[in-house]
């Protein structure tokens, strides 16, 4: 390819990029709504909580205040919890779960833990209301799990999420999100498992799973 051919290829590529940029800016000009989002991370693939705590880190970096309720992973000493606890002025963490249902083997106990977690979640959501909101983002980690097992009344959960403060972002994680929650949400991402080392006999890894 000659220098002239290179110049022509570059000119065409630059012209296409200019048109893409103009089209993108035209689309962005129509997006004027600013509001708190209800975000759901679900699916069988890894990364649901990871993505939610990535949102929390981004919010902290932007000077925002974050509330976290962990519904299931109470027994796990997780790396994200250690990191978030280093920002006590911006982050409140409530660890309400007592482990996965197959660990506790006590449905009544699991329901009590779920109810306590939901009480903490409602408190955070309500604290985001008014002229001096305490939270900008609330992460409800593994809420989908307790909803899946009917440990909480779905209609009551949906009512609170629907009536959340207008500027509050709420992120919900966990497999098997209820269809009604998906319908209510503004942003839903389904993590799809393609390959997982657990199936090859590899145990959960520090810094990756917890």
Q: Please, could you describe this protein's structure?
A:
The protein has 210 residues and is of the alpha/beta class. It folds into two domains: 1-32; 35-200, Rossmann fold. The chain has helices spanning 3-28, 48-61, 79-84, 101-104, 107-127, 143-148, 154-162, 179-184, and strands spanning 38-42, 66-70, 91-95, 137-141, 169-173, 187-190. The chain has a six-stranded parallel beta sheet with strand order 3-2-4-5-1-6, with helices on both faces. Strand 2 (66-70), helix 3 (79-84) and strand 3 form a beta-alpha-beta unit. It is globular and about 75 Å long. It starts with a helix and ends in a 20-residue tail after the last strand.
User: What's the SSE pattern?
Assistant: HEHEHEHHEHHEHE
The CATH topology of the largest domain:
Rossmann fold
What is the mean pLDDT?
88
Helix/strand-derived category reads alpha/beta
Q: Give me the Rg, rounded.
A: 21 Å
* Main β sheet profile: 6 strands, parallel
Strand order of the largest sheet: 3-2-4-5-1-6
Q: In terms of per-residue confidence, which ranges show pLDDT below 50 for 5 or more consecutive residues?
A: none
Could you give the distance between the termini?
Answer: 52 Å
Assigned CATH superfamily of the largest domain: P-loop containing nucleotide triphosphate hydrolases
Global shape: globular
CATH architecture of the largest domain: 3-Layer(aba) Sandwich
Number of strands: 6
